[in-house]
Prior knowledge:
Elements: H1 2-5, E1 19-24, H2 28-38, E2 43-48, H3 51-60, E3 65-68, H4 77-86, E4 95-99, H5 104-112, E5 117-120, H6 125-162, H7 169-183, H8 188-199, H9 210-213, H10 221-227, H11 230-238, H12 248-253, H13 274-289, H14 300-309, H15 318-335
Parallel strand pairs: 1-2, 1-3, 3-4, 4-5
Helix pairs in contact: 3-4, 7-8, 7-13, 8-13, 14-15
Amino acid sequence: MASDIIRPNVMDSDRGVKRKILVVDDNETNVELICMHLKPFPYEIIKAYNGEEALQKIQENEPDLILLDLMMPKVSGYEVCQKIKSDPKTALIPVIIITALRELDDKIKALELGADDFLIKPFNKIELITRIKSLLRMKVLLDEMDHAESMVFALVEALEAKDIYTRGHSERVAKYSMILAREMGMTEQEVEVIRKGSLLHDIGKIGVKDAILNKVEKLTQEEIAHIRTHPARGYEICKSLKSFKAYLPCIRWHHERMDGKGLPDGIPGEKIPTSARICAITDAFDAMTSNRPYRKGISPLQASNIFERERDSGQWDPDIIDVFVNLIRKSYQAAS
């Protein structure tokens, strides 16, 4: 029955967590009408009567969903929507436009700015509640994915603390990969994927024994073989997270070689994704330039000479090597 759709239920409270809904309209009567419709539900209602107030309240108390009027003085609903959706911190907050405007162009403009849904006044109460529930369910799933991501990145921090000799390694590799990807002309979206993939590239070492990671003496062949399992281990840790799909190439294939003699799968040349080829170089660079218990790190310029000498050895992508070597040398010239 239709009445079942608008009946409060346990799922609305998200296991006891009240979902926050921001209602934005310069007409107080409209705000109170929406609040009355939402009163039976376990939502925390936040009110704003203009665009400026709405943006301020979003910063102070980030909502889980926004009901937004378009025609408001000073800062319009269009501007509010654009600012919400262009800010990475708030871009995933669902926005339902509720307006008296009926022209198709108005709807298209709002949707192009990132609005998630659109209702015409006077709206149907059941339709309003149904759409709110649907978008809040999506927000809960996104929050859970974000939490899962945070947990994995926390594992990276735990790994860095665990290995005293490579502390800061993953962050440095991520930084170098980001700079290299930008120099190669990649989009900011691609750069961010490579940064995160590089940050996670050694996550599989969380399963490597501490005694091996922190060993000062030369490793045995058995111990080396154990460490070499970390790309596949990292892949197994992260593969079930759908939001991590784009990062998996860096994690699994950063020890592959262009000649097909790498690990764990022995894939050759351009079959290795670009992100993994970039990470392979920046990972090696940081290993060369960092101190280890058994040797002192070399200078970046010395590392660039090794890359240049080994350009066609089959280990790394020679075209990416050229870009990276030029970057290192340009930074030296700028510093001198």
